[in-house]
């Protein structure tokens, strides 16, 4: 009797589903054991029944096999992540390179180079953009001139104020010097009085009589 091919879908009958689970579970555990023995493979099998009962098989330590699985999975995920990051960086670099090339070509056109490839519409668009740029440049230039002029005016006011302060300070110094001159002269005269001896000598000199000795004054 030829067995028919089992259709791969959920068995609706609970009894048939439980019988099929028991048979296939035993065959699965047997195959796992045979694989570990025949091929010297590290096999770990975990099965939960529809009712939540655990069935397991491990050719070595279940814990060691699970840790080995985690490490291998983590390394694979890390490797895949790194590879994805590399691919993304390459794609971003290619995109940026293309954008830089496009910007460089556009800049050359704005400067008047490589215009042979441009159609009339593109030339008109370039002309409009250049005119707008000139308007912005002139407006910015005018603002800078106004700012510089305002700074120069402010500097002029500051210099005038400093000049006025210096002139006022100079006048005050001249007035103080003029007022102090007579006082200094009087102090100099008082500091050099005429000695009494010199006065006596002058009086003696005025009483001298020049003539023959023995004769008095006539």
Automatic annotation (TrEMBL):
Coiled coil (UniProt feature): 79-106
GO cellular component: nucleus
A GO molecular-function annotation: DNA-binding transcription factor activity
Biased composition annotated in UniProt, kind: Low complexity: 177-188
Domain K-box: 86-178
Ranges of biased composition (kind: Acidic residues): 197-206
Location in the cell: Nucleus
Region ranges (Disordered): 163-218
Keyword hit for Zinc-finger: no
Biased composition (Basic and acidic residues): 163-174
PANTHER family: SERUM RESPONSE FACTOR HOMOLOG
Protein name: Uncharacterized protein
Organism: Lolium multiflorum
Lineage per the UniProt record: Eukaryota, Viridiplantae, Streptophyta, Embryophyta, Tracheophyta
